[in-house]
Amino acid sequence: MNDEQNQAPNNLVKDQIIPAFTLPGPDGMPHSPWDYKQREHLLLLFIPSLTDARARTWLSGFVEQYRAFRDEMCAILAITPDPVLKNLQVQEELHLPFPLLADPQGSVIARYTQWDSATRTLLPGVVLADRYNALYQQGFAQDEEARPSIAELLADLRYINTLCTP
Q: Which of 74, 88, 81, 80 is nearest to 42 (CA)?
């Protein structure tokens, strides 16, 4: 990818409400940002195919810090271009505490980041929304180092919690 392709289009603006969607989880049940609205902040992870070892490693970092995200009242939803069955296998393999949502057509993925339907590839990244589904932060890049780190996301959540007291 060249430098232009290494960054997602800035189609989400701070203070904007994140686009609504419903996608099936590994159990086939639907998941939506609305399931968490007014109760929890939401971190959306856009993960390339889970056949990619780098994607699994990146995902593992969120698994290791899952308790810290939950302590900050944040739910995590990971979205992949893989089908439900593949996500179910990986969910069980990695013992993921949060759902892997399947978007094999890329219809939701394309609303958030770059999506190539011919090759079924996406630009990985994160979207952090507060409990009212207002966009707080986003970061998409091919290189993990160019995306917001887990420490940065947790610091942002602590700050959001000072602003959004229940």
A: 74
How many other CB atoms sit within 10 Å of the CB of residue 70? 14
Structure tokens of 8? Answer: 């997602």
In the block, residue with structure tokens 């420490």: 151
The pTM of the full predicted model, rounded to 2 decimals, is: 0.89
Radius of gyration over every alpha carbon of the chain, rounded to an integer in angstroms = 15
SS (H, E, C) the chain: CCCCCCECCCCCCCCCECCCCCEECCCCCEECHHHCCCCCEEEEEECCCCCCHHHHHHHHHHHHCHHHHHHCCEEEEEEECCCHHHHHHHHHHHCCCCCEEECCCCCCHHHHCCEECCCCEECCEEEEECCCCEEEEEEEECCHHHCCCHHHHHHHHHHHHHHCCC
Alpha carbon separation from 118 to 31, 79, 115, 122 (Å, rounded): 26, 18, 9, 11
pLDDT tens-place string over residues 43-62: 999 999 888 899 999 999 99
Tens of pLDDT, residue by residue over 75-88, are 999 999 999 999 99
Q: What is the pLDDT of residues 104-123, one digit of tens each?
A: 999 999 999 999 999 999 99
